[in-house]
Amino acid sequence: MLLSESPKSLQRTVSIAIFSMLALLFLIQGSPSQAGTSNSLMDISADGTLLACSNRDSGTVTIIDLKDRQKVHEVEVGHDPEGVTFLGETHQLAVAVYGDDVIHFLDGQSGEITGTTQVFDEPYGLVSSPDGKRLWATLEFPGQVIEIDPSSRKVTRTTEAGQFVRGLAVANNQLFVTEYYTGVVKALDVDSFQVVDEWSGSAQDNLARQITIHPSRAKAYVPHQRSLTTVTHGSGSIFPYVSVIDTDAGEGKRRKRVQMDSLRGTYVVANPWEVAVSPDGQTLYAIFGGTDDMFVCDVLDDNYRELEYQSLLRTGSNPRAVRVSPDGETFFIYNALDFRVDAYDADSLKLSWSVQVTECPLPNDVLLGKKLFYTANPPMTSRRWISCSSCHPDGDPDGRTWQQPEGLRNTQPLFGLKETHPIHWSADRDEVQDFEHTIRSPLMGGRGLIRGPVSDSLGDKNGGRSEMLDALAAYTNSHAFRPSPFAKTGLSDAAQRGKALFFSEKTKCASCHSGPFYTDRQMHDVGTIAEDPSEKIGPEFDTPTLLGVYRSAPYLHHGMAPTLEAMLTQFNPDNKHGVTSHLSESEINDLVEFLKALPFE
Ligand code: HEC
Ligand code: HEC
Question: Is 325 in contact with 44 (CB distance < 8 Å)?
């Protein structure tokens, strides 16, 4: 039949055939323009009319009308909002309020909070089912994925999904989850709500906070860095990557890492934060929170190369989110430290408009300090590979133990820092301004912020010598302690018994871990040096605070004690670190329950 038709109608038949094939593909894959399929700080409604973003510093969600190109609502939601998603095709949305352990539901039209779900701890990523009837969230700590019914706001299912899970995406009845500190990707079956597959990368993969699925091919993209802890030299310690995962691969599952600092010759970028793929699947946008730029890449139909550099774009300060409009014509960048969303024309890559999403809530010095902390640009570095935030993102540790010249050093959380000086495990610094030494060290290779020579870390003050350095210190000192989720309903019976033990003469814990911050700020030899032959400063270390130890494993300066139990038993054979050898198993357990509940007030 076909042969007897005229060329024109043949053309039409062929186009109809292609069209129906495409339509079928869409049916199978779900519309690529659907909102909320991968976690982000920003989301666009399926009809392309509203954009929502969460403003971590302000504690608000902003809603922008994309037709009028203006902000229509800014809604107060609580401390440290992270993931935000529209529900299916609606204008209803949900936001994960990381610091307050709640998920709020909002009406994008009116800007009102319509409901709230309490969760155990640290909700981070959020995605919605295509019909908007189910919502999924990652709880970074304790490492769970939960399902919520948006109509009842009830948590309907909970599953253990790994350690510190952040990234979350949904496709083809599967949820894809990333572990923040390992970059491991897991697939959960939506029906059984169980982990059914896993893709691990290299042991050095780190800070994988997001995952995006290709709209039509079986690929997932994970922006992350690699932390090479044996190299404390700027040209070899932190590397930027996008890992590409074959989501349908079976045995010997394929996972490829595309190194972002060799994609465009030797142009260096740092701290890949998020990626987005255009609805037609042809283009990938990758933003770099450390170097304030973005790569536009061609997505290749080539399992070995995957991505090819197309263009470079300079962004605002600390870009943390990128999203593409459902028609693919516009992409949006969230510049966290300019508090601004920029809209770009996807063809010309020209900036078309901007919206201030919130007022900067930070004092001037803290804002300047935060910009310095997050940037990998000069004068903090010479070659743009690394920033303070590459190892201390949002005050969290990077979960790593670094081989420093002075010995093994586990990265500390920065929470409550200003209450717990001196600084470092060895108390070898007495003010944050001494980090001028880190800036000028081979690790960062920066010119530094002080003019002229730097004082010794324990010598004359470096504070007051540079406005920028004082600002860096003001920001670094601004991280507050977070309450322990294990003490939400007060101390359990076990924790009460542990508390009594902790403060007893039997254990002597409180003789060093004293006062409101559980530290006497003194140096002690607690017998922990033996394990590390590379140690140059020990055997004495600064008593660390215990507030927040529930989530900061591994323990001790060398990071060798995997759990609190191990630290109190195996790593304290001679009772030099408190007296523990006479404690029964259940007493150790009680003590651990108490430590996990800190801070409880
Ligand atoms: C390569 C990873 C890395 C980078 C980059 C880095 N740090 Fe650290 N940071 C660490 C490690 C590891 C420790 C623990 C070192 C020690 O105690 O000797 C630490 C400790 C600290 C502490 C001490 C916390 C406490 O409780 O005593 C502060 C403050 C700090 N860093 C701030 C900074 C600042 C500011 C910058 C940027 C100028 C920076 N760090 C860059 C890894 C890093
Ligand atoms: C003599 C003073 C002293 C006593 C007594 C003491 N500690 Fe410590 N504690 C320290 C020092 C110093 C360190 C850091 C040692 C290191 O990193 O090598 C430490 C580290 C810790 C850590 C690890 C914190 C982290 O972030 O890695 C915990 C938890 C802890 N102590 C709990 C206890 C408990 C529980 C007791 C009682 C059984 C106790 N300590 C008794 C001084 C003391």
Answer: yes
80, 56 Cβ separation under 8 angstroms: yes
Task: Give the pLDDT confidence score for residue 252 in this predicted structure.
Answer: 76
Kindly give the distance from the C-alpha atom of residue 539 to the centroid of ligand 2, in angstroms, as a whole number. 13
The distance of Cα 284 from the centroid of its chain, to the nearest Å, equals 20
Beta carbons of 440 and 566 less than 8 angstroms apart:
no
Find, among 319, 479, 470, the residue nearest to 394 by Cα.
479
Distance 553 CA to ligand 2 centre (A): 13
Q: CA-CA distance, 94 to 123, in Å (whole number)?
A: 11
Per-residue tokens: 471: 């600002």
Q: What is the CA(411)–ligand 1 centre distance, in A? A: 6
pLDDT in tens, 38-72: 999 999 999 999 999 999 999 999 999 999 999 99
CB 167 within 8 A of CB 208: yes
Q: Measured between alpha carbons, how far is 591 from 599 in angstroms, rounded to an integer?
A: 14
User: Which pLDDT does position 28 carry in this prediction?
Assistant: 41
What are 125-151's pLDDT values in tens digits?
999 999 999 999 999 999 999 999 999
| Residues whose CB falls within 8 Å of the CB of residue 519, separated by 6 or more in sequence, listed in order | 420, 512, 513, 542, 543, 544, 545, 546
Yes or no: say if 554 and 561 are a contact pair by the CB < 8 Å rule. yes
Asked whether the beta carbons of 502 and 510 are under 8 A apart, the reply is yes
Cβ–Cβ contacts within 10 Å for residue 270, how many? 28
- What gap in Å lies between CA 124 and CA 142, rounded to an integer? 11
pLDDT at 35: 58
Instruction: Convert the pLDDT of each residue in 556-586 to its tens digit.
Output: 999 999 999 999 999 999 999 999 999 999 9
Any residues with CB less than 8 A from the CB of 515 and at least 6 apart, and which?
Answer: none
Question: Considering only CA atoms, which of 519, 536, 37, 24 is closest in space to residue 279?
Answer: 37
- Please list, in sequence order, all residues whose beta carbon lies within 8 angstroms of the beta carbon of residue 4, skipping any fewer than 6 positions away: none
Cα(534)–Cα(558) distance, integer angstroms:
10
Q: Which two tokens stand for residue 89?
A: 């095709």
Distance CA(151)–CA(294), nearest Å, equals 38
Residues in the chain: 601
Cβ neighbors of 591 (< 8 A, separation 6 or more) are: 498, 501, 502, 507, 509, 568, 580, 583
Probe ligand 2: pick from 412, 484, 526, max atoms within 8 Å of CB? 526
What's the confidence (pLDDT) of residue 363? 98
Q: What stretches in the chain show pLDDT beneath 70?
A: 1-36
> Comparing C-alpha atoms, which of 160, 153, 156 is closest to residue 139?
160
**493: burial class by Cβ within 10 Å (0-12, 13-18, 19+)?**
exposed
Return the structure tokens found at 331: 């992409």
Cα atoms in the 13 Å half-sphere on the side-chain side of 504: 13
Site to probe by mutation for ligand 1, drawn from 411, 441, 477 as the one with most ligand atoms within 8 Å of Cβ, is 411
**Atom 3, ligand 1: residue with shortest CA distance:** 391
Q: What does the block give as tokens for 498?
A: 């542990």
